Amino acid sequence: MKKFSQPASLVTLLLTCIEGMGLVLIAWVALKHLKEPATAQAQLMFNFIVVIGAVIILYQMYKDYSRTGPNPRVMLYGAVALVSVLAVVGNFGDDMVREPGYLALFIGAVAFCQIVKLSCQMASSQPDAQRFYDVRQGIPVTLQARVATGRDRRFIAAHEAGHALLYAAWSPYPDALRVVVKAGSDGSNSLGYVNDGQQRHLLTDKTFAEWDMLMSLAGSAGERCYTGEMSLGAINDNQRWLSVATPYLSCYPQSGIFYTDPASQLEIEVNQRHLSALRAAQNALLEAFFEHNREVHTRLTEALLAGSTLTGADLHPFFAGVQLPDDIPRPQNVNTQA
Questions:
Q1: Mean pLDDT in the chain?
Q2: What CATH topology corresponds to 134-320?
Q3: CB contact at 8 A, 44 and 84
Q4: Deepest of 187, 241, 267, 324, by most Cβ within 10 A of its Cβ?
Q5: What is the pTM of this model?
């Protein structure tokens, strides 16, 4: 699953630099004073912390691997904390275990490992400016687990139903299509999604590109059709639309020239006018589409609210009831196996 982060501000970049310099300084001081203790008990504590600390770092780094991948920031924080703790034990461990012996050994080892764990957990919590968004058709959320409200679910269901109805233009309908509305955030960066399970051709044809752009805008159009409003859940859809619209206009400019690599403010403004005109035309097309298919879209939205997930043939009766205007693009043979 592809992700993107919000652009970092100058303040965020400055804080990141200060953070990095602080970690480097701490690591340098710790490594300079790193040594093994002399007594057997202190050496036992030292070795215990090395093993358990490494296990904690690896666990914290990979515990969310399935949804976020390995987190190198956790490894960095954990490694600096571990080296710092070992430097303290190496220099003061002998004195710590003289009295009262093994009890201090155990308590000290557990406490120092807890420091490593807390450092890893602190590193794994991303600041707001670095939270991620899903680039599939869906709604961006933070990594914090929260339950969706009734209002949230209506927006999510209408959004995903809007995306899904565009598949009525496919011939044949996709059998592997899956539409999901979640009960809340689950750490996967998505509150809902539409996935057709089809591998795309390497070369995108004009008709499919036009359909794909409408697909990206259909989520917001579906929200507006069902609720009369739009949420801020289309950040990823807008990025997707732009990623298709730019090469599309480069190959098929609506009027005049679209600059593939604009080199001046004038050329940038020309491109912006092309993009704005294309988006306005497609939004108008979608508004007419959902006006003609309001009843079908409402039924699909309420079916998703009732059951959360619809797949394959369950969606085909909804598609059969869709009225397709003549100017809606109809992709053929989307599956690369066709």
A1: 78
A2: Methane Monooxygenase Hydroxylase; Chain G, domain 1 (1.20.58)
A3: no
A4: 241
A5: 0.57
